[in-house]
Every structure is written in C-alpha cells, then in structure tokens.
Amino acid sequence: MRRSLPSLNALRAFEAAARLGSLKAAAAELGVTHGAVSQQVRLLEDWLRAPLFERHNRRILLTPAARAYLAEVGPAFDRLAAATARYGRDNGAVLRVNAPATFALRWLVPRLARFRARHPGIQVRLETSSQGLEALPEPQDIVIRGGPDAFPGHAARPFLSEHRLPVCSPGLLARQPLRAPDDLRRHTLLHTLSLPRLWDDWLAEAGVAGLEAEAGLTLDHFYLTLQAALDGLGIAMGPTALMADDLARGALVAPFAGPALPARSYCTYVRQGRAPGEAAALFLGWLEAEGNMPGQGR
Fold first, then answer.
1. 92-160+265-291 shares the fold of 8-87
2. Domain limits of the chain?
3. Class for domain 163-262, per CATH?
4. CA count, 13 A, side-chain hemisphere, 62
C-alpha cells in the first residue's frame, strides 16, 4: 500500500526547528540556509494544510497540534537514526570527523592507529578545515576546534588543553646553551604569521620584554614553524599538546620550565538534541582518554 508522506526534507526541517526552537539553529544543524529551512517548513504546512508555528518576531512557538505531531515525528527520526547506525555497524560504520590541519597532522593522525586497533569496524573519514561549523559544506559527526565556543545547535566539550613554551632541537641547544631567557638574544626566534604576538607576550612574562634576538624567521603556517624548530633553524613558541610526541622522544626540548602561556583548549562539537551514534560516542570517549594521558599538554 502506498504511503501518504510529506517530503523527508520538510519533515527534517520541521523536526530540527521544533526541537531547537529556532529556524536559525535548525539551519546550522542541517547545514543549510535559514531561508531553506523556512521554505521547507512552509511546504510542510501547505502539505498538512495547517500552520505548525506561531511566529512572534524572531521567536517561533509550536501550535498545540504541532506539539503532538513532533511527539510522533521526533521518535520516528530517532528510530530511523538508530536503525541506520545499526546498519552502519553491521556494514562498516563511517564516522565523519573534521579537524584543523595542524592538529590533525601533529596530534590526531599519529594516534588514530590506536583507535582503529580498538574499533576495527569503524571507518574514520577525516577532513581538515579551520572554518566555522556553520560554513562547513556538509554535516559532520564530530568537529574539532579550539574553544569552547558557542556554535548554534552544537554542544562543545573540551578534551585537550595546552600551553605554549619555547622549544628547540637538542642539537641547537648543545651548540648554543640557554640558561636564562636573556640568552635568547643570541638565537633565531621562529614566528608564525597568524600568531604574531606569541614571542612578545612570552618575553614580557619572562621579564625580558623588548628583547631583540639575533635573527628572526617568520612562516605562514604553524606546522612549518614546528618543522623549522625540529630542523634546528631556531626556537619556536610551541603548543605543548601538538609537541607532546616530539618532547617525549627528545626530538624537541623545552629549555625553560616557564612561564607557560595559556592557550585555548581543543574541543569536540556535536549536534545537540540527540545522543551521538555509537561510533561517535566511542570516538569521543577515546579522544578524552587520549587527551588525559600524561604529557598531553596539561
């Protein structure tokens, strides 16, 4: 028997807007524009031949009939999501993760083998970007960014903290020892174009504000700055989390115990309103366990 059903896109738009109480938040969650959500809601209202929301300036309120409708539609979407997750587990679940390129290169990718060994049935599709969540071209299961920040329709959870300290190669330190911050004037300081004040802030905290180093080298990406430090080109202001492996194996050394500049934590961002699928929940738990291991930036 043929089912009489409205458009799935219209139902998704209604369910998200009703659950979040906002067309804008629904648009952010679904990865579409505010106008697209509004249009889909109107299409559903036309199909039902009844209004779904009472609009009060920028606020939307469900009509009594729409509240009863949501009570049926919401669980139906939950059951559909659960069935899809079960199917994915049985056929190799794909987990979509988006992270900044430097973080992925320096921290996440070197640890992914441990996750895959523990959960071989979950396929991680890792994409790199530094865009805001609202600008991503398609929805992601987990987005990793600095924070915690407020993104509509998403919940943030910190999992990895870090600080910034001067670091260099052990070979460079052997050639030109650093016994006090003032000794930096005989070295090359490595700078990152997007973080121009890191050295100024650290030197001020160390009590040698205005120190002029023998030379400086500026690079446009942070991973290039760290690579220059590894290659002995100079001394970088490195984030402890992204240097944890290099420090542990002795490829980099921190000549000074402090001061340590505070930095933003790394956070996971997942869509609000529904519990994450099993694959996402396992990945989130794994990230937090890795972030709490000794030497990970704390």
1. no
2. 8-87, 92-160+265-291, 163-262
3. alpha beta
4. 16
CATH topology of domain 8-87: Arc Repressor Mutant, subunit A (1.10.10)
CA–CA separation, 228 and 199 (whole Å):
16
Q: Is the preceding omega at residue 148 within 30 degrees of 0, hence cis? A: yes
- Which has the closest alpha carbon to 182: 206, 215, 216? 206
Q: What is the CATH number of domain 92-160+265-291?
A: 3.40.190.10
What's this model's pTM, rounded to 2 decimal places?
0.65
User: Mean pLDDT over all residues of the chain?
Assistant: 87
42's CB contacts (< 8 A; 6+ apart) are none
How far apart are alpha carbons 77 and 287 in whole angstroms? 28
Residues 6+ apart with CB under 8 A from 271: 29, 139, 153, 154, 155
Confidence band for 290, pLDDT divided at 50, 70 and 90: very high
Strand-strand pairing, 154-160 and 265-271: antiparallel
Q: What is the pLDDT of residue 162?
A: 86
| DSSP reduced 3-state for 250 | coil
Return the pLDDT at 87: 63
**Total residues found in the chain within this entry:** 298
Beta strands 142-147 and 93-99 are: parallel
Show the tokens assigned to 248.
């542990």
Q: What pLDDT, in 10s, does the model give residues 150-176?
A: 888 888 999 998 899 999 999 999 999
